[in-house]
Amino acid sequence: MLMIFELMKIVVKIRKVTLILVTIIFLVFSSFFTWWLEPETFQTPFIAFWYVMTTVTTTGYGDFVPQTTQGRLFGLFLYFFGIGLIGIVIGKIVEGFSVYRKLKEEGKLTFKGKGHYVIIGWSNKANHAIKEIKQIDEKATFVLIDYAKKSPLEDESVFFVHGDATEKYILEKANIRDAKSVLIFTRANELDPIAADGKSLIIVSSIESYATEINKEIYTIVEILKEKHIPNFEHANVDEFILADEALSDLMAKSAVHKGSGKLIMKLLSSKNDVDLWKIKKRAQWKTYNDAFEDLKKEGANLLADRNDFSILTKLDEMIPTDAEFFIICSKDTYQKVTQ
């Protein structure tokens, strides 16, 4: 008995991989040994394996029971050593899950998925952006890069990476090369617009440098606090930027002059309403803008723009360029029909 307890102490200290290997060898050996001891009771090695597993897991169906003294003695050995061994294995597995969960919460794991959105910098605006994207795309997944000690958001669709987004290995942990787009937000406690935009510019430069290194385009969208900093971001090849302060001021100014326009724009920006802004590709049968306009109108969608060009209604008879990218306003159901 003392020898068995000494063996169990040794087993507890060995590595998980070694423990699993020892357990497999023990179960296989016990099955063949039981079959060798009582071939009449346990007619095949599989039946012996069934007996061993029901014994060490304390299930004990009793459908197969050793009949000889030798078989029963070995059964006692299985009770003491086998049950203890399986208990340790289960404990190690549970411990492994706990360690995995802790590492995931602390942002120390690497994201393996693709087609996700990378969010850099946690704030209420970043949280709202995640919710809006999920309203549009229910299957969307996110990787959040931030300095927080643990994930600030308990959401299965959000994978947290702790660290500095200017570091190459952090960008690789977020698998930024396979992301749909990267959204860079100003941190909530950042009061100095020069410092905030400067940090965002360094992050963008790091991303663009990495994109050049892997020879792949990475779509970046950046929150900018001051309009005068736009030229610096344009030099860094930012795809889109949102002026945080000016956007609010512009919206309030339009509401003051054209009463009700603010509500209209806010409804368009929010995905909680019946209609939303969607991007679609040019169809092969569309030759002129009028072709696209009429077809979309019949399907219940309003053609708004070709990229940044809102003057489509003034040039309906013009030919559509091959690189056209249309934006339409319609419901989600209509959009799904249009894209089909």
Task: Identify the notable features of this structure and list them briefly.
single chain; 340 residues; alpha/beta; Helix Hairpins; Rossmann fold; Alpha-Beta Plaits; 3 domains; six-stranded parallel sheet; three-stranded antiparallel sheet; 12 helices; 9 strands; elongated; disordered N terminus; transmembrane helix; RCK_N; NAD(P)-bd_dom_sf
In short:
With 340 residues, this protein is an alpha/beta fold.
Radius of gyration: 31 Å
Number of strands: 9
**Count of runs of 4 or more consecutive helical residues:** 12
Q: Helix/strand/pairing class, anyone?
A: alpha/beta
Helix content: 40-55%
Q: What is the annotated CATH architecture of the largest domain?
A: 3-Layer(aba) Sandwich
CATH class of the largest domain: Alpha Beta
Please summarize the sheet with the most strands.
6 strands, parallel
Percent of residues in beta strands = 5-15%
Organism: Anaerobacillus alkalidiazotrophicus
Protein name: RCK N-terminal domain-containing protein
Keywords: Membrane, Transmembrane, Transmembrane helix
Subcellular location: Cell membrane
